[in-house]
Design brief:
single chain, 9 helices, 10-stranded mixed beta sheet, 6-stranded antiparallel beta sheet, alpha+beta
Length: about 575
């Protein structure tokens, strides 16, 4: 086992799936449902036109997964709005005794045999929390605060450079009391009434902490956030010359897991808010919640649609399986990131073929949503193309929304567009036969040039989904008066926008217009307004006839009045319109 600091992988822990965030939503009465579901924005301000293709089967090998993620993105039934989640008080065997092929309990040694009794991590010196303490002493001390688990335990497994790392997470609903919660809650593990893991050091995690996670009027239902934990127990330190390291995994077995929050109730003074326990089984595969609490067992035959074999350049892959006693989900994240157009390939099976599962494509460190869509649960493969999604150099994640009870299997892969067989291109468009290729020399700036290349490639492929994605990412001002991207790039075309984009970016040279903006054609700038070469470019590209070019050049007031496009040096597509 590689030595791992408990703070390592904290950004992976922030990458919780919003399906877990909505785990309890459908069972909560009244306004609580709205408050939970409002955190997952299925409808975004930026509209992306959906282009989906249903495919009856996939050719490929069995799924290859680097590591394991256990996640239940479904409901945990609540007793009522004021009650805690159903606790199991260490007796989880009953959950494994019902259903098909009930798995035997893991038979590892007791967790107390691997921990250091009485040890207290340095980041908890302000508290009375110690390893080996009775769970009866793990109490809420923060006035007015309440915490409840809101989903199954899950793990994010990242394979960067061949050295996978794993972190645990669980959604939590936190109701505000005195003070504010400025750090993520943690997962505290216990076995046989004794605390055996105190969770990660969230106080030392880098990132924006200037504003509290919870500190305003959040309403009676509370706010859903991610509780984090490391896969290595922080109750088994190995002493070094400097700081202790943690390299011990808890033994296989049945555990209770509690969510513990640390609100700051006064300046420099923290307290604890503790949830009721939930059952978790840790085995050789991973950590699991009991399926019996998530909607039952398999009622449908095995799917003929298998996940595709590993795709060159895929960024993340998620698989959920509820056909056994204990929920299992697997998520892998690669070290690949790119400015290539991307797609989400997915399939889902449910007892109700009308079910759908919302998903978002997010930037892990900021949780910024770049795009969203739905996985259809009719058993057929679906492909949604989103164009270029810029994660700022980060590998992007797929994050699920609420998963209906009837869903039994689901998978989704985020990969480059065109990496797998997804059917024919969008169809014919005006750029099909344009004999132009993008030349990097056409842009004086690399950032603007990367986006220019993506626009040219999408236009020449007649890919309206990719163009809409590119135009709504910033967003872009299209035409005067402005029109929505899904109408401007609708196929079949009403105007020749696809051809015009290629002509501008591949047929003319861009120039710096000032304020960090590159504009095509360069003839629109003062520097090149009287350039013979610049005027010849727009004619050769087919943007103007020679007669039109001569007439516009002779107009000393307006000059070039044809179509132009601007992209800033950060790669943001700013506008596409006729010259004002």
């Amino acid at each position: 086992m590689n030595r791992t600091d408990p703070n390592e992988g904290w950004d992976d822990e922030s990458n919780f799936l919003s399906g877990a965030l909505h785990g309890a939503a459908d069972e909560m009465p009244g306004a609580e449902v709205d408050d939970l579901h409002i955190s997952f924005g299925v409808v975004r301000d930026r509209v992306r036109r959906r282009r989906a293709a249903k495919i009856s089967g996939v050719t490929g090998a069995s799924l290859v997964v680097v590591g394991v993620l256990a996640l239940g993105a479904t409901q945990i039934p609540l007793l009522d709005r004021n009650s805690a989640l159903p606790g199991v008080s260490g007796d989880v065997e009953a959950y494994a005794s019902v259903g098909p092929e009930a798995a035997p309990s893991p038979s590892g040694p007791p967790a107390t045999s691997v921990i250091q009794d009485g040890y207290q991590p340095s980041w908890l010196e302000w508290s009375d929390l110690t390893c080996g303490m009775p769970v009866a002493d793990l109490e809420t001390t923060a006035a007015g605060w309440a915490v409840a688990s809101a989903g199954d335990i899950y793990a994010t497994v990242s394979d960067f450079g061949g050295d996978p790392s794993t972190s645990w997470g669980m959604a939590a609903t936190v109701q505000e009391g005195e003070g504010a919660l400025g750090v993520a809650p943690v997962l505290v593990w216990s076995q046989d009434g004794v605390v055996v893991d105190l969770g990660s050091n969230v106080f030392g995690a880098p990132g924006p902490q200037s504003e509290p996670l919870i500190g305003g009027d959040e309403g009676s239902a509370g706010t859903t956030v991610a509780a984090t934990g490391n896969s290595l127990t922080t109750c088994a330190p190995t002493e070094t010359e400097t700081d202790p390291i943690f390299e011990t995994t808890l033994p296989e077995g049945d555990y209770e897991v509690r969510v513990v929050a640390y609100p700051e109730v006064a300046s420099g003074q923290r307290a604890t808010a503790v949830s009721e326990p939930v059952a978790v089984r840790l085995d050789a595969v991973g950590a699991h919640s009991p399926t019996l609490m998530r909607g039952g067992f398999a009622t449908i035959e095995p799917s003929p649609v298998e996940p595709p074999a590993p795709i060159d350049g895929e960024q993340s892959r998620f698989v959920l399986d509820r056909t056994t006693d204990w929920v299992t989900a697997e998520l892998t994240r690669s070290d690949y990131n790119s400015t290539d157009p991307v797609q989400v390939i997915s399939a889902c099976e449910s007892a109700d073929e009308g079910d759908t599962v919302p998903f978002e494509v997010v930037v892990p460190s900021t949780q910024a949503v770049l795009s969203s869509g739905f996985v259809s649960c009719d058993g057929a493969q679906t492909v949604e193309t989103f164009g270029v999604l810029d994660g700022g150099g980060e590998v992007l994640d797929i994050r699920l929304g609420a998963v209906p009870d009837g869903v039994e299997r689901l998978w989704a892969v985020l990969a480059p567009d065109g990496s797998t067989a997804v059917g024919d291109a969008a169809g014919e468009c005006s750029a099909n036969d344009v004999p132009l290729e993008y030349d990097p020399a056409n842009s004086p700036n690399e950032g603007a040039g990367a986006t220019a290349r993506a626009i040219v490639e999408a236009a020449q492929a007649c890919d309206n989904g990719a163009l809409v994605g590119l135009a709504t990412m910033y967003p872009t001002e299209l035409l005067i008066p402005a029109e929505p991207a899904d109408e401007v790039f609708l196929l079949p075309e009403g105007d020749v926008h696809y051809r015009t984009l290629v002509a501008l970016l591949a047929g003319t040279v861009g120039a710096d217009q000032g304020n960090g903006t590159i504009v095509w054609p360069r003839v629109v700038t003062e520097e090149f307004r009287d350039s013979d070469e610049a005027w010849d470019e727009v004619v050769a590209a087919g943007l103007l006839t020679q007669e039109e070019a001569d007439a516009q050049r002779a107009d000393e007031v307006f000059g070039y009045t044809g179509m132009q496009i601007a992209i800033d040096t950060l790669g943001n597509w700013r506008y596409y319109s006729a010259t004002p």
